Amino acid sequence: MEEINFLQTNFRYSAFIEGGQYYLLDRRPVNVLCYFFAPLTWLFYQKVYRISKKDYEVYIKRYQKPDKAVVVPTAFIGGISFLLSRWLNSLGLIEKLETNLSMGAKLLILLTVLAIVFFLIELIFHFRKKAILAKINLDDKELRPCKIRPYKSNKAVFKQLFMYFFMLAMIILLILGFVDSGSLFFLFGVWFFLMLLFLANIQYIGTMTYKITKVKGEE
């Protein structure tokens, strides 16, 4: 199958052309694990809708700006996080925000934060879907489940994997900090990096080349 590039996006959906046909990819993770590590998405079948040329033109008209991944250098995030924590520590803010919560209460709060972040991300996906349905009726479109993986983009893939491992490491360290001290500073950090992790949504972006490796029912 030929190489494909995603041309436009509304955060949830990306359009592409393959074999002279027009398609719309639903970028909402198909598996819960993919929320925490988006590259796992490349191993699962994705929801791909075959759309008409007219629908494609409507989509392009609605989202005229090319899909550009918002890439924040990992070193920058790490540097800012380190400097911020040092500054707040010098002010004694971390200690001031410490609590005397029990271990059970801390774990319950962490689960609540995770649930809130998940709910917010799902809400964004929901409104992005409504925005598409206002222009294109996907219910009557042919669903073509596909496995789509990066192609000839090794350098870009390495950068994305490094960024994800960095954010996961930060989340783990912040969770350990909250469990150990009970400081709300670490709890806010957990929320912040979880939002970054879920909002990254970089598994299918316009700056990388992809290839459909398998189509369900066409093996």
Could you explain the architecture of this structure?
With 219 residues, this protein is of the alpha+beta class. The strands form two sheets. Strands 2-3-4-5-6 form a five-stranded antiparallel beta sheet. A three-stranded antiparallel beta sheet has the order 1-8-7, with no helix packed on it. A hairpin with a 3-residue loop joins strand 2 and strand 3. Helix 5 runs parallel beside helix 7 and helix 6 runs antiparallel to helix 7. It is elongated and about 60 Å long. About 5% of the residues have low confidence.
List keywords for this structure.
8 strands; 5-stranded antiparallel beta sheet; 219 residues; alpha+beta
The count of helical stretches stands at: 7
The first-to-last residue Cα distance is 13 Å
Give the overall shape.
Answer: elongated
Low-pLDDT residue intervals, each spanning 5 or more residues: 67-76
Helix content: 40-55%
Order of helices and strands: EEEEHEHHHHEEHHE
- Give me the secondary-structure category: alpha+beta
Determine the strand fraction and express it as a percent band: 15-25%
